[in-house]
Amino acid sequence: MAKQVKKTLRAYFDDAVMVFGTSYRTWDDQLGEYSRRFKKIPHTVEMADVAWVGFGGLKWAEWGQAFEKELADEGEGRTLANFEGKFRPLNKSELKILLRELPRFE
After folding, report:
1. With contact defined as beta carbons under 8 Å apart, do 15 and 35 qualify?
2. What angle do CA 42, 68, 33 make, to 5 degrees?
């Protein structure tokens, strides 16, 4: 099981805004898998020091209603408001970790 950290990642793609976090794998691994599977690289990535959804092993969700539903299913009383205003740019060490996981498409 991945080390439990209080981090939620928000990634902006051309066609969607997605959120990722550490469930059974780390946030960087989850975003790396998403990028490889869907052949997409985010143009902006932000981090919030807020715990990821602790319900059902969720890997990722689209920001907005889909993520709000996952939070409701979690049963902890959290909403998108618990995350808004808490996202920040990645620091150097987080960016280094992320760049190792993202695929390079030619």
Report:
1. no
2. 35
Residue of 53, 63, 12, 67 whose CA lies nearest to 35: 12
Tens of pLDDT, residue by residue over 12-35, are 999 999 999 988 888 999 999 999
Distance CA 106, CA 103 (A): 10
pTM for this entry: 0.89
- Other residues' Cβ atoms within 10 Å of the Cβ of residue 78: 17
Query: What residues pair up with 62 in beta bridges, in sequence order?
Result: 18
Query: What is the rounded CA–CA span in Å between residue 59 and residue 26?
Result: 9
CA dist., res. 30 & res. 13, Å (int): 15
In degrees rounded to 5, what are phi and psi of residue 105?
Answer: -95, 135
CA–CA distance, 27 with 22 (Å, rounded to integer): 5
Token readout for 89 is: 């740019």
